[in-house]
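Bumping my old thread because nobody answered last time. Still need a sequence for this structure:
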């Protein structure tokens, strides 16, 4: 693996067509300050434009995936917020929230599939981030908490919007309204994660396997699948069927499709180029 990009709080590592975005503030439990929010966004944006990247693993260094918002160096100055600020202060806060929404939601809107590998605590902004990923795995020691209500806040950067589509409305209400902690077994039962592995290294290995499986497929097809799934959100079944019919009518013909047929008849593994 070699580093190709440089960020202050995030590392990017590469293994062939798979890249890893690594949260790298272990001394702070990977708690989100303004720099980490920005670096996460910029890392995913860079990889989205990198044709040598076909799948991404999201993981973290240290004892925890993330402890959530770093209250000691938060991206928002709570002084004016807690005072009787006028419209200008409120509008600035809204702009900040919108920026954080874009930054943590970046995995959802890029073309490349993202596999999250969670170990230890995943709190607050961590849930916002992994709910924007395509696949979520965790280790047996993982703990999840949507705990903004504990500090008199409404979660506002993605969890309340994405989790109902992942775990359902009832489970989202339970987690958000109680601000309780749940373990890996409960996360699996709810469908928040699709696999639980023994420890941190095991979940990293499993996430890399998933990413390599994705990277071995046609990028044209894989990115098309993610696009169609994203676009049909909110559509009726018939609207979704109409959309994918139009999509394939436009994009089914590709060099990758020709390669798939050739490899089948020649009894060999296909070599996709994303064309």
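Sorry it took so long. Here it is:
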């Amino acid at each position: 693996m070699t580093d190709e990009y440089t960020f202050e709080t995030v590392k990017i590592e590469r293994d062939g067509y798979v890249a890893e975005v690594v949260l790298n503030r272990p001394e702070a439990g990977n708690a989100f300050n303004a720099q980490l929010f920005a670096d996460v966004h910029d890392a995913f944006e860079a990889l989205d434009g990198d044709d040598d990247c076909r799948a991404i693993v999201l993981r973290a260094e240290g004892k925890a995936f993330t402890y959530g918002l770093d209250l000691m160096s938060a991206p928002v100055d709570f002084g004016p917020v807690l005072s009787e600020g006028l419209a200008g202060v409120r509008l600035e806060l809204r702009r900040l929230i919108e920026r954080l929404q874009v930054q943590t939601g970046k995995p959802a809107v890029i073309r490349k599939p993202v596999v999250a590998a969670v170990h230890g605590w995943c709190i607050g902004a961590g849930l916002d981030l992994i709910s924007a990923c395509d696949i979520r795995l965790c280790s047996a020691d993982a703990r999840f908490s949507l705990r903004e209500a504990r500090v008199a806040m409404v979660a506002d950067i993605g969890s309340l919007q994405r989790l109902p589509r992942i775990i359902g409305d009832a489970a989202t209400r339970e987690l958000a309204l109680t601000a309780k902690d749940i373990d890996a077994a409960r996360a699996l039962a709810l469908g928040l994660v699709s696999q639980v592995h023994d420890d941190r290294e095991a979940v990293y290995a499993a996430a890399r396997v998933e990413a390599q499986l994705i990277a071995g497929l046609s990028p044209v097809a894989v990115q098309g699948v993610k696009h169609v799934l994203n676009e049909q959100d909110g559509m009726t079944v018939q609207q979704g069927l109409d959309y994918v019919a139009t999509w394939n009518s436009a994009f089914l013909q590709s060099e990758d499709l020709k390669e798939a047929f050739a490899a089948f008849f020649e009894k060999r593994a296909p070599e996709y180029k994303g064309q």
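DSSP finds twelve helices and nine strands in the chain. Let me know if any region looks off to you.
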